[in-house]
Amino acid sequence: MELISKVKSFGGEQRVYRHASKSTGTDMDFAVFLPREALDGYACSSLIYLSGLTCTWENVMTKGFPQQHAAEHGMIFVAPDTSPRGEAVANDEAYDLGQGAGFYLNATQNPWKSNFQMESYIAEELPELLIDSLPLDEDAIGLTGHSMGGHGALTLAMKNPDLFQSVSAFAPIVNPMDCPWGQKAFKNYLGDDEATYAAYDACALVASEGWEKDILIDQGMADNFLEEQLKPWAFDAACRKAGIDLTLRLQGGYDHSYYFISTFLADHVAWHAARLD
Ligand SMILES: N[C@@H](CCC(=O)N[C@@H](CS)C(=O)NCC(=O)O)C(=O)O
Question: Which fold has domain 2-276?
Answer without folding.
Answer: Rossmann fold (3.40.50)
